[in-house]
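Researcher: Go.
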Amino acid sequence: MITKLFAYTSRGTQVWDNQALESFFLNDVREGECILYLWQNQNTVVIGRNQNAWNECAVDDLERSGGALARRLSGGGAVYHDLGNINFTFLVHSQDYDVKKQSSVILYAVRALGINAKMSGRNDLIVDGKKFSGHAYYRKGDRCFHHGTIMVEIDTMKLSSFLTVSKPKLEKNSVPSVQSRVVNLRELKPDLTVKCVEEQLISSFSDVYGLPADIFPEARLNRSVIDEERIKFADWDWRYGSRADFPEKTVGRFSWGMVEIGYHVQQGVLKNVVLYSDGMEAELLSEIPIRLEGCRYTPQALLERLMTIEATTSLEKTILQDIGSLF
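Model: Structure:
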């Protein structure tokens, strides 16, 4: 049971610094605590754990603009951040992890500001059919986080310029462009500011959980650990990964997301397997190319190898079966 709330607002705007803080909070959160972490990044594209950076982002254009590319721990799709966007993260132990309750903090805050927001599916918050907040999730041992974006007054021209959303994904959502899928809250309430949204989020955090939200104590911030985490998130190999061309490739789109698997076939077995996906089940998807490496290249052998991966939910079982159907 949650008995203590902490809130922390980062004033730095460099994405790898902020990701390092998020990772620190995940490792530091104690039983019975819930931490709400608010943060902003300047001119940044953040891709999901298993995405192909070059497929999701106009990397050269972003870098020429002085922007940064980041890869997060959670799954899902690519997003654009600037100082018109607020990122939130709820960090708790698994026994207190409640996505519906955590999402209600965002909903109540936005509604308290006079905007009639609604939940759409598992991962998005919308107003009049347009998305202003997307969510993703991550679990590490007995600790979890739920994080996402809140578009207050983001530069939608840059968003459209830097994000290269695939045509099938746009067709799935029946929209002509990524820009037409989203809305800034300030379009709906012109006097809205980032600061007032942040203040309302902390107020709603306290209201939803029925506890006061204290500022996270600076004395608990271990700067040497945070600096080590930053090195991991800033690492080129982590952010960009492989750009190799693969002679064999299989692509599929399913209800849970898109997947692309590249590989070589040498003497009848799979080699150099990579997987790219915007699916939310990041850990499961990360495991698949490791397990397929060295597998005999027959549909039956590949499916049998996939079924050796532990699937703890019906969705994870479906993902494995769907990927097996691609071969």
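Model: The longest strand covers residues 130-140.
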